[in-house]
Structures are given as structure tokens and as C-alpha cells.
Design brief:
This protein is an alpha+beta fold. Helix content is 19%, strand content 37%. Strands 1, 2, 3, 4, 5, 8, 9 and 10 form an eight-stranded antiparallel sheet that branches. It has a two-stranded antiparallel sheet with strand order 6-7. Strands 11-14 form a two-stranded antiparallel sheet.
Length: 233
């Protein structure tokens, strides 16, 4: 994904949660990205705010936004139903950008940044210039497609990403238990063994719990199988 495509997905939602660290304590606030260019994603705060100090001291920010319907229904069976939606998150390194740098861009996309700084002289800009993130597009009730989830990870500025999804190792015996229990339709057969499509995998752990061979590698605690051993049926 390009930086502009990432920005458009955030901008479509508008309000985002920005997280920083204050000492040993995480803190969040609602803000939004104002613009983007080939250098990254831009946002603003005031030099008098704790947010500014935390950005300067830590040099990092994590941002998440959710596009979802507030309506959640309960079926006759007691299950919950929700409309399709997506969330997008990004984490990375930031640096302060002076108004001189902003003006020198001569880019209409930054007109609001310049006007806002004129109204509030303590206002300053930051750019998220090196980052990684993910779009998590869900349709849990499969109203618009035949599977629940589409995940896409991205990065820019030299960052790298870990691909989503759990992994079935060479220890797979081909029993097919993983595919039977996967409600996300993320598991498929390839020859005599099974593989997981990371773009559909929620990393829910059902395959890991039910694999009798302990062949599923997860991303949490060390060990491939529950309790560090093989799960028996």
C-alpha cells in the first residue's frame, strides 16, 4: 500500500486514537491525521501539551481507528451479529516538522496546518515517517463474501512487517483437524499437509488448540502446542 492509500483509509474514519508512553504508563487521546506526502503521515499538537512532550521524549506513536456500525444484534440463538467494518492501525517513529518545512512543501494539502498554526501559535506538526501497520477488514457474519476476514499489513520508511497468521510446521501429519475447526476458512490442503492463509487468519488459536501433532506455531508464549505439549483429542 502507498502512504496516500493508508492516509485515505484513516481519513475515511476521521477520529483516531493516538497512543504514547508517559514514563511507564501508556496514554491515549483522540486526534486525526491532517495530510500525507512521500515522507509519511502528518498530525499536529501544541507544544504546551503532554502529548508533545511524550512524542519528543519517546519518538514514537501508535494509532488505531475503527470503521464500524454501532448496531449489534442478538440472534434467537443468543449469538451476536454485527455489520462488516474494518480497523486500521499503524505504529512507528515520529519527528517534529517546523512550519518553515511545511510552507516549503508548497503543497495545498498542508494549507490547514499553516492556517491552524496561525490561529494557535503553540501549534506544531509531526510526521510519522517510519512505520508498519495493518488493515483488518472483517465480515464475521459473511454477509458480503464467503469468508470472515481479510488482513493486509503494510510498512514504509524502511520498516518491516511480520506477516499475519499462525503457521503450520513440517510436523503436520495431514489429519485435517485444523481445517475442520477453522471458522475463518484460513486453512487449506497443499499435498499431504495443511497451510494457513495469513490474510484470512485471525490468530484465534483454534487450530493450535486442536492440533494433535502440535504442528501449529503461534506468536504468544514459547512452544507450539498448548501447555508446551501435544493436545490429545
Amino acid at each position: 500500500m502507498t502512504i496516500e492509500e493508508i492516509y485515505r483509509r484513516f481519513d475515511r474514519i476521521g477520529s483516531c486514537v493516538f497512543a504514547t508512553v508517559n514514563g511507564d504508563t501508556p496514554e491515549t487521546r483522540v486526534a486525526h491525521f491532517l495530510a500525507c506526502d512521500e515522507e509519511g503521515l502528518y498530525f499536529m499538537t501544541m507544544t504546551t501539551k503532554p502529548f508533545y512532550r511524550q512524542l519528543k521524549e519517546g519518538g514514537r506513536v501508535s494509532v488505531c481507528a475503527l470503521s464500524a456500525s454501532p448496531e449489534i444484534r442478538q440472534t434467537e440463538e443468543g449469538l451476536l451479529e454485527m455489520e462488516p467494518g474494518y480497523f486500521i492501525r499503524v505504529t512507528g517513529d515520529v519527528r517534529e516538522v517546523s512550519m518553515e518545512e511545511i510552507r516549503a512543501k508548497n503543497n495545498p494539502a498542508f494549507a490547514y496546518c499553516i492556517e491552524d498554526q496561525q490561529r494557535y501559535p503553540a501549534m506544531t506538526a509531526f510526521v510519522l515517517y517510519r512505520a508498519w501497520g495493518e488493515i483488518f477488514d472483517y465480515d464475521f457474519d459473511m454477509k458480503k463474501r464467503d469468508h470472515k476476514l481479510e488482513r493486509e499489513r503494510f510498512c514504509f520508511g524502511g520498516h518491516r512487517v511480520e506477516e499475519p497468521g499462525l503457521v503450520i510446521t513440517e510436523s503436520c501429519t495431514g489429519c485435517g483437524r485444523c481445517m475442520k475447526v477453522c471458522t475463518f476458512k484460513a486453512v487449506r490442503r497443499e499435498g499431504n499437509r495443511f497451510v494457513i492463509d495469513g490474510s484470512r487468519c485471525d490468530e484465534c488459536g483454534d487450530c493450535w488448540v486442536h492440533c494433535p501433532a502440535g504442528a501449529v506455531r503461534h506468536k504468544g508464549l514459547p512452544g507450539n502446542a498448548p501447555h508446551g505439549g501435544r493436545h490429545e483429542a
